[in-house]
Amino acid sequence: MEKNRIIMHIDMNAFFASVEQQNNPALRGKPVAVIGSAKRTIITTSSYEARAYGVKTGMTVWEAKQKCPEISLVVGDNRKYTYTSAQIMKIMLQFTPLVEVFSIDEAFLDLSGSIALFTSAERIAYLLKAQINHHFGIHCSIGIAPNKLLAKLASDMEKPDGLTVIRPEEATEVLERIPTGELCGIGAKTARQLALYGIKSCGELGRFPVEILRKRFGIIGERLHFMGLGVDDSPVIPAGDAEEVKSVGHSMTLERDISDRREILKNILQLSEMVGRRARRYNVYGKTITLSIRYADFDTSVGRQETLSCHINQSEDIYKAATCILDNLVLLQPIRLLGVRLSNLRYESNQLPLFSEERRKTFLVDAMDKVNNRYGDFTVTFGSLLDGNNKGSYVISPAWRPDGIRNVDVK
Asked: 228 or 257, which is more confident?
């Protein structure tokens, strides 16, 4: 790994709420919360004006109104957010080709080769902030450090609209006082387990015997040791250099809990079509189908998979495999969330089947895809889906990317 790297992490502040405030001037400077379109919904994100009242992501609408009675609730427009994110990523590419999209509102930039053109990383940060604010009227927090781990940490230190630089010689002192749970990659559960060993800060984690960490956490233990020291050699990986996707999947939180088999199958069919369309678009075939279910209590979930004898990417075949999995499950509660995933992938060019019936089905699916590519998903679809109004995913997955196979059409 190249030494003396300069890595930047950009985090768009209250992204969904900020986009809505700029889209509607009447919301600017006021407490705003973005919610889903379903009858039962939670706060997706809130503006900083709302956060001042204690409104947080994951709260119910009732809880948010208790905290802030005058809060404005806006139904989220995911297509607006994905479009804005993609345009912001294009601005980043003006400063370096090494841009790694981390999520819809976050990205890493490797500036090591760009400093000569722009004088300093700080100047690049200010230029980026100015351009993003000028074009979209929103703010971002930026962290600059010698690696991705520290850059991500730095961007979280000063919000909103902050700029924090952690220089290599400052890393040890900074980490000494940082709780382990604030490092990207150490979740609440791992932080609690570390606390049982008396490890509460990153400094303590870096000094703790790596042998004990290895024994308790396995291979992850060594990774935790280096995280405590602020060491991270992972490169910034632009979209074109990313590893091949290992699965294609969609999940959907339902507007209400369902237990009727016909409703369950209808949603599985829709998910199978979404998975199949994306797989066919990129000439991906999969051999393993996974059906994921989350029950009404939201704490209980089940996932089952089936590996087929051949690779498939047609929606009907994906649906049949997912249905077989469902038939072998005993549903314990009404269902809140469904997911279908195609994995065990291989990439290949489309070849016409040998048998006439299979060729006819391939031509039909190809014609449907062409219409839907031009006029929008589900313009032409299965008859059993015609009475529905679902046109895409309700949720923007953390794996979403502005282009390529991970670019999921969202509502």
From this structure: 228
Between CA 45 and CA 106 the distance in angstroms is 15
Encode 2-37: b = buried (16+ Cβ within 10 Å), e = exposed: eeebbbbbbbbbbbbbbbbbeeeeebeeebbbbbbe
pTM, two decimals, is 0.75
pLDDT, residue 1, reads: 46
Of the listed 20, 100, 106, 204, which one is catalytic? 106
Nearest CA among 54, 88, 91 for reference residue 71: 54
pLDDT of residue 389: 53
Domain ranges of the chain: 1-166, 171-229, 244-385
Cα distance between residue 36 and residue 15, in whole Å: 15
CB-CB contact of 45 with 19 (8 Å): no
Give me 147's structure tokens: 């690696």
CA 70 to chain centre: 30
Catalytic: 204? Answer: no
Instruction: Tell the CATH topology of 244-385.
Output: Dna Ligase; domain 1 (3.30.1490)
Is residue 160 reached through a cis peptide bond, with omega within 30 degrees of 0 on the bond before it?
A: yes
Rg of the Cα atoms in the chain: 23
- CA 85, 87, 93, 95 dihedral sign is negative
Question: What is the CATH code for 171-229?
Answer: 1.10.150.20
Digit-coded pLDDT (tens) for 84-132: 999 999 999 999 999 999 999 999 999 999 999 999 999 999 999 999 9
What kind of architecture, by CATH, is found in domain 1-166? 2-Layer Sandwich (3.30)
Phi, psi of 256 (to 5 degrees): -150, 160
For the segment 229-285, what is each residue's pLDDT rounded down to a tens digit? 999 999 998 876 656 678 888 888 787 889 999 999 999 998 998 898 888 888 888
